[in-house]
Design brief:
Blueprint (H helix, E strand, L loop, with lengths): L9 H10 L18 E6 L4 H4 L6 H9 L1 E7 L5 H10 L18 H7 L4 E5 L12 E2 L4 E2 L9 H4 L2 H4 L2 E3 L1 H9 L5 E5 L28 H17 L9 E6 L30 E8 L6 E3 L3 E2 H12 L17 H4 L4
Parallel strand pairs: 1-7, 1-8, 2-10, 2-11, 3-6, 3-7
Antiparallel strand pairs: 2-9, 4-5, 8-9
Helix pairs in contact: 4-10
Length: about 325
């Protein structure tokens, strides 16, 4: 563990994170928590080095020195959609593109409901769609590829389950009323997830508008400031509740106009030769207030396994490979 860094320049911050003491032991621990609430916030297409030390991402950098930081976390593959499938079903299950798909496989919804718990998918700008199966809405603000639940046939075919996929605006009232599900998956729209969209040069959400105070990184960071703050100020932030903030894949490599998949690193049963690259993953634990880093190799399968182990849900796909897919107990903190 390390002390919280209160105030420092971002270049110094980067050096301190890189050189801080870390936890390197495998976290296959029997004391993973029985979480009250789990929140997963999935950001987009931004590499670790593009964020850590970036002055346009003050929340991300402060959180990295305050909570749990996985310094060796990678996406499972490229492009986006397979990573969303991976983090909710334990495998990409044959999904290798961003095309609309429907797959008949066990998933986290089955496990959560089977354990008597509740869930919702909070999708920003979903309210702009005509149906919940639309490919894109609001001039690419909402993209189906960032909503894994509609790709599962046993969700598509269930009106009750489809009713649990809602616009992010619903989270405000759920937090206020205390009607927060056990498992909440939050996907910002493409203006707020650091991804961007195709558009005119005057569009603040366009792909090329990455850096600078008004860029996509700054806008996404402000989204995290707002919504993590709302969660932590709500009655749902109690007991062993936890927030996972992660990025689906490493895409941005330092040039405001380059969006190629230059980083294909991976671990933990990632796609051979096409890992998702090095990304930031921050874990905020209500019952553990210490700043800690882990350099254990984790990926989206590890995140899913951590939730499964904490709730004793069993495993799915590669989360069953406990020899190669460690749970993230090193950054979720001790039993609360």
């Amino acid at each position: 563990m390390r002390r919280v860094i209160a105030a420092t320049g971002f270049a110094t911050l980067l050096a301190m994170i890189g050189g801080s003491a870390s936890v390197s032991a495998d976290s296959s621990r029997p004391d993973l928590k029985n979480y009250q609430h789990v929140f997963v916030i999935m950001m987009e297409n931004t590499g670790y080095d593009a964020l850590i030390g970036n002055p346009n991402a003050p929340w991300t950098n402060t959180a990295a020195t305050t909570y749990g930081l996985a310094t060796n976390y990678t996406g499972v593959t490229h492009p986006s959609q397979p990573n969303y499938i991976a983090v909710t079903s334990g495998s990409i299950n044959g999904v290798k593109s961003d095309n609309d798909t429907a797959i008949n496989v066990p998933n986290i919804v089955d496990q959560v409901e089977g354990s008597g718990r509740t869930w919702k998918g909070y999708m920003q700008s979903l309210s702009l769609c005509t149906t919940k199966l639309d490919h894109a809405c609001g001039n690419q603000l909402y993209e189906r590829k960032h909503n894994p639940f509609v790709s599962y046939q046993d969700v598509q075919n269930s009106p009750a389950r489809m009713a649990n996929i809602v616009d992010l605006a619903q989270l405000d009232s759920d937090l206020t009323s205390g009607n927060v599900p056990s498992y909440s998956f939050i996907a910002p729209d493409q203006c707020n997830d650091m991804h961007g969209r195709a558009g005119q040069s005057t569009d603040p959400c366009r792909f090329a508008n990455v850096q600078g105070p008004g860029g996509l990184i700054a806008t996404g960071d402000a989204f995290l400031t707002k919504w993590v703050g709302k969660i932590m100020a709500s009655p749902a932030w109690n007991g062993n509740s936890v927030i996972f903030v992660t990025w689906d894949e490493s895409d941005f490599t330092g040039s405001p106009t380059h969006f190629g998949f230059g980083d294909t690193s991976g671990c933990c049963d990632a796609e051979p030769g096409n890992g998702g690259g090095h990304v930031v993953t921050i874990v905020i634990s209500h019952s553990n207030h210490s700043a800690v880093t882990s350099d254990v190799a984790y990926n989206h399968y590890s995140l899913l396994r951590t939730i499964q182990d904490g709730w004793q849900l069993g495993c799915l796909g590669f989360t069953c490979d406990t020899a190669n897919v460690p749970a993230m107990g090193a950054v979720t903190g001790p039993q609360g």
